[in-house]
Design a protein that fits this description.
single chain; alpha/beta; Rossmann fold; 8-stranded mixed β-sheet; 3-stranded antiparallel β-sheet; 11 strands; globular; binds 6-O-phosphono-beta-D-fructofuranose; identical protein binding
């Protein structure tokens, strides 16, 4: 995995946006894999800036989001569809029908999961997948214990994830307890992966991801099985890494 340690959140966001923009410039039909949560908000802000200032053209691109809460409609303000609309989609010229987010309010969720996998396949697979990381090492909503063979499915959120995400809701009781999430196998199927982490709270998960054995107990560590992963972390998130002592960028 390629590790890039940057100073702070701002630099992480800019670097990640530049990577995505470059990908779209190189291949206008890029299939983007997108993530939500607090971490990529700055990256989307920078990407919108690049779109406005440099005219990055998304008109032939498409996107697939990692996950969506079960039970929230696309118009619910805390749905990941609404998040994407607010932070990215409404600002750029990505065609609406090519911006995919799983439907967490589908009547038949199993069918929705199969449809979503099929849609990724039909698009030719994901070219570049953006990921955040949970404090417990989750990626997407693949909580500890998720199999390396898992595909898009309904997952149960752990109490720690529910509590971590309660900051976006009026109360912890309002946080959905389930989500539709791409699986580990779906994520590892992307041609390239970029994982972002910022802040001291992520330092232990980042350490286990990069320096621990690959194990389903820390889903992000399974990214070690992928040939093209770039991890962009700020100094606080890198603070528990052996590599951080060396102080810069390294390849492992
Ligand atoms: O970026 P945040 O808000 O710390 O969240 C980290 C991870 O948690 C999730 O938001 C899900 O709980 C993921 O989408 C994200 O990768």
């Amino acid at each position: 995995m390629k590790l890039v340690i940057v100073k702070d959140y701002q630099e992480m966001s800019r670097k990640a946006a530049e990577l995505l923009a470059q990908e779209v410039k190189n291949n206008p039909q890029t299939v983007l894999g997108l993530a939500t949560g607090g971490t990529p908000v700055g990256m989307y802000r920078e990407l919108v800036k690049l779109y406005q200032e440099e005219g990055i053209d998304f008109s032939q691109a498409s996107s697939f989001n990692l996950d969506e809460y079960v039970g929230l409609s696309s118009t619910h303000p805390q749905s990941y569809r609404a998040y994407m609309q607010e932070n990215l989609f409404r600002h750029i010229n990505l065609p609406k029908d090519k911006a995919h987010v799983p439907a967490g309010d589908a009547k038949d969720l199993e069918k929705e999961c199969a449809r979503y996998e099929e849609a990724i396949h039909e698009a030719g697979g994901i070219d570049i997948q953006v990921l955040g990381i949970g404090n417990n090492g989750h990626i997407g909503f693949n909580e500890p214990g998720s199999s390396a063979e898992s595909t898009t499915r309904v997952v149960q959120l752990t109490q720690s994830t529910i509590e971590a995400n309660a900051r976006y809701f009026a109360s912890v009781e309002e946080v959905p307890t389930q989500a539709v999430s791409m699986g580990i196998k779906t994520i590892l199927g992307a041609k390239k992966i970029v994982l972002l982490a910022s802040g001291e709270a992520k330092a232990e998960a980042v350490r286990l991801m990069l320096e621990g054995e690959p194990t389903a107990d820390v889903p992000a560590s399974l990214l070690q099985l992928h040939p093209d992963v770039t991890v962009i972390v700020d100094e606080a998130a890198a603070s528990r890494l052996d590599a951080a002592a060396a102080g810069s960028e390294d390849k492992r």
